[in-house]
Design brief:
The protein has 491 residues and is of the alpha+beta class. It has 3 domains: 5-255, Rossmann fold, CATH 3.40.50; 294-339, no CATH class; 366-484, Roll (Nuclear Transport Factor 2, Chain: A). It has helices at residues 49-62, 75-88, 125-131, 135-143, 211-220, 227-244, 291-306, 309-318, 323-339, 352-356, 358-372, 379-385, 400-413, and strands at residues 5-7, 10-13, 30-36, 66-71, 94-100, 103-106, 109-112, 133-134, 149-155, 186-189, 196-198, 253-255, 386-392, 397-399, 416-421, 427-430, 437-450, 453-466, 473-484. Strand 6 and strand 7 form a beta hairpin. The two termini are 44 Å apart. The relative contact order is 0.10.
Length: 491
């Protein structure tokens, strides 16, 4: 039986960081409303939404949040819980709302579904809008409280429960749409564009939480970790785990913060070291937990910090089975792939099977998540998606340093940058004299802003991507603006 998974489970962390970008001072409250819904009455029930909510509640309480837990709530109970939560917030507080359950995109907006959502007839979108909870409205309600830091974790993009075979159904077939991210916002998805998020790695995986949630809660508990750094690590770990199960899942995130946010204050603890004589990890000071669990977790962290085949084998010798053992095997597989040169067949065009099926999803995911949706202010990210030399906007071939300099200058000009691939707009063709390279054309919606000035519209992108190596690289880039409401430079 193949692993059970959710569809494009997204997490939206909307943070309006006022001031210096650190965790709130002790005098400021940390409040969380955590919602999980498995028991849907008229649509497909879920299995791990409640487990995810309960795990997140425990983690947040350890991080100093007061948590209201709401499980399997109907529409009235959800609205009452939100109203009661609002009443507890004061200016300067940190407010976090987590929703784990079904969600659907309707007319470009995201809606969260309560347990009593009815199953509509084909095309009854307005009916569902009235019965569901608008994510946009929910964000506005929390913003009106004056809370300085606002976090929304929305894990609500399983397969659309309203999609009907042979009919038009209601909403998109997979996942939610990308949330507009204003300045001061961090958006994090547990899977990339048009990807699904694993609930479990295999039939023997009995964890009560999804793969993404179990990785996220572990990272949240680490001290001194800025949110952007945490998100990168979560993405890396989840990607490795998913590949170990034969699945593609690369969580996307969008950083519009001007400062930093920390779930847990304090300097990052040094990596524990495996002692050669015994393989036992050193034990940091922590809240009392069962010793076996503590040792396994510390040993895993130590192996991850070293990240060599020898370190992972030492871990597996001590802990040969369980969730962390699965992660260790996945890490070893990744190291083996990175160290081994690709066979000649991988340097050529993809197989016919991939061309017929997965290739489009692969290219769409790269354009949506890495090119349009990546961190355009990160030198490391830009270096990861461009080749060493790029045919750049009619200037001929220029070094990647020139590309990065222009991207960073544009990001300084427009502090808020949002791009989203227009569904169904992407087309591609192989380049005959360059095996593994594809010419890709697509359209995207954009919104750039600086203070009160904002420009939005639609653009046309033209890139050439080489996918013959370990990761896709852009070798050519051009395009233009199709429509706009003002004047803005190119992407």
């Amino acid at each position: 039986m193949r692993p059970i998974f959710r569809c494009l489970a997204l997490m939206t962390l909307g943070l309006a960081i006022a001031g210096a970008g650190t965790a709130p001072a002790p005098a400021e409250g940390r409040h969380a409303l955590v919602i999980g819904i498995d028991a849907y009455r008229d649509i497909t029930p879920l299995q791990k939404a409640v487990g995810d909510a309960e795990a997140l509640k425990a983690t947040l309480e350890d991080l100093g949040f007061t948590v209201d837990l709401v499980l399997d709530a109907d529409r009235r109970a959800l609205n009452r819980a939100v109203s009661e939560f609002q009443s507890k917030l004061a200016p300067g507080d940190t407010a976090l709302i987590h929703f784990s359950g079904h969600g659907v995109e309707l007319d470009g907006q995201n809606y969260l579904l309560p347990a009593d959502i009815p199953s509509p007839k084909s095309g009854q979108q307005d009916f569902i809008k009235a019965e569901a909870i608008s994510l946009g409205d929910l964000m506005q309600r929390v913003a009106s409280s004056g809370a300085a830091t606002r976090i929304f974790i929305v894990d609500a993009c399983r397969d659309n429960p309203f999609a009907q075979a042979g009919s038009r159904g209601v909403g998109g077939t997979r996942g939610l749409t990308r949330v507009e991210a204003p300045a001061g916002t961090f958006v994090l998805y547990s899977a990339g564009y048009n990807q699904t998020a694993l609930d479990r790695l295999n039939d023997a995986d009995s964890e009560p939480t999804s793969v993404y949630t179990r990785v996220l809660t572990k990272k949240m508990a680490e001290p001194g970790r800025p949110l952007a750094e945490l998100a990168r690590d979560v993405r890396s770990d989840v990607e490795v785990l998913a590949k170990s199960a034969g699945h593609e899942q690369r969580p996307a995130y969008y950083d519009e913060l001007s400062g930093q946010f920390f779930f847990k204050d304090g300097a990052a603890a040094p990596q524990a070291l495996l002692e050669p004589a015994t393989g036992q990890p050193s034990t940091p000071q922590a809240a009392p937990v069962p010793q076996a669990s503590l040792n396994e977790r510390d040993a895993y962290d130590a192996a991850q910090g070293i990240n060599t085949a020898a370190a992972w084998h030492a871990f597996l010798k001590r802990f040969p089975s369980g969730f962390y053992a699965d992660m260790a095997h996945a890490a070893l597989d990744k190291i083996a792939r990175e160290e081994a040169p690709p066979p000649p067949s991988q340097l050529l065009t993809p197989s016919p099977a991939e061309s017929a099926g997965n290739l489009r999803q692969r290219l769409e995911a790269f354009v949506a998540n890495d090119y349009l949706g990546g961190d355009l202010r990160s030198i490391a990210h830009l270096e990861s998606i461009y080749a060493a030399q790029v045919d750049y906007w009619g200037k001929g071939r220029v070094p990647v340093a020139t590309v990065i300099a222009e991207k960073l200058a544009y990001a300084r000009k427009w502090p808020s940058l949002n791009y989203a691939l227009k569904p169904g707009s992407l087309s591609f063709e192989p380049i005959e004299d360059s095996p593994g390279s594809f010419r890709i054309q697509f359209q995207y919606d954009f919104r750039v802003a600086k203070g009160a000035k904002a420009v939005e519209g639609t653009g046309q992108g033209n890139i050439v991507v080489d996918i013959s190596g370990p990761s896709p690289r852009i070798t050519s880039e051009s395009g233009g603006v199709l429509t706009r409401n003002g004047t803005a430079g190119r992407r």
